[in-house]
Design goal:
Layout (H helix, E strand, L loop, with lengths): L1 E2 L10 H18 L1 E8 L3 E8 L5 H19 L3 H4 L19 H12 L8 E4 L4
Antiparallel strand pairs: 1-3, 2-3, 2-4
């Protein structure tokens, strides 16, 4: 789970959600980090990924946060005015390692249930066409 700096409600805008998915597709190709599910709330995102064993969970988070932030600023320069500190993500976040099976299913369900009522939660499931 990563929160947007200053808890700004950046993911109300569909263009940011759509582009974030595109960035995650690019990360998957370059780093062998497969995105399974992303749940967008107003000011944070939950991401379930699979990665190569050579990457520690903290390195996976670093890759995702740095690339998504850089690409979002390049594609949408207006974001820099809203996030005046020059950072897209808050420091830290939550990282948990899970194995396949019951634990992974619990995490998938948790991500799918995140968000507020109505259309404020945007879920992208990479496992379904």
């Amino acid at each position: 789970m990563f929160a947007v700096k200053y808890r700004k409600d950046m993911f109300l805008r569909e263009k940011y959600v759509t582009y974030m998915k595109k960035i995650m597709d690019g990360i998957a190709e370059r780093y062998y980090i497969t995105t399974e599910t992303i749940g967008f709330d107003l000011d944070h995102v939950h991401i379930l990924v699979q990665s190569a064993p050579r990457y520690a969970p903290s390195r996976v988070a670093q890759i995702i946060k740095s690339i998504t932030a850089r690409e979002m600023f390049v594609q949408f320069p207006e974001i820099k005015k809203e996030l005046w500190g020059g950072e897209f993500w808050n420091d830290g976040g939550y990282i948990g390692a899970v194995g396949e099976g019951a634990n992974a299913d619990i995490i998938r369900k948790y991500i799918k249930k995140q968000g507020r009522k109505g259309d404020q939660l945007r879920l992208v499931d990479f496992t379904e066409p």
